[in-house]
Amino acid sequence: MTATDYVFLPLTGFALIGLFVLVLRWAHRPAERRSGRPLAGEHGVLVPVTTVRDSATAAHLVAVLRSAGIQATTTGSSAEMLLLVWPSDAEAARDRLVELSREKG
User: In 1-105, which ranges are continuous DSSP H helix?
Assistant: First the structure.
């Protein structure tokens, strides 16, 4: 190895690492919004249909709605959970929950 190799090889390595860092920063930067419109709501496009106090009740209600063909999910803490559905299913989900409360009632 010559004297220039001792300078050139580390500089080349640092340059490649720097280039790699720049590419990774570019690839992992936050996505830019394409439109100025805000998201539909606090939970994206899903809408809350009811609030429950415990995860067992929430899981039961999700199962009831799914058996009725309505996609549902929950979010929140164990003290207060929201039952979320797609906007197109919100009316049917509320109707099914009212029916369920009348059946238990």
Answer: 3-27, 55-67, 90-104
Global confidence as pTM: 0.58
Rg of the chain taking only CA atoms, in angstroms: 27
Report which of 62, 47, 56, 46 is spatially closest to residue 100, judged by C-alpha positions: 62
Residues β-bridged to residue 82: 51, 75
pLDDT digit string, tens, across residues 25-65: 999 888 776 555 444 566 778 999 999 998 888 999 999 99
- 69: helix, strand or coil: coil
Coil, helix or strand at residue 29: coil
- Contact status, residue 94 vs residue 61, Cβ threshold 8 Å: no
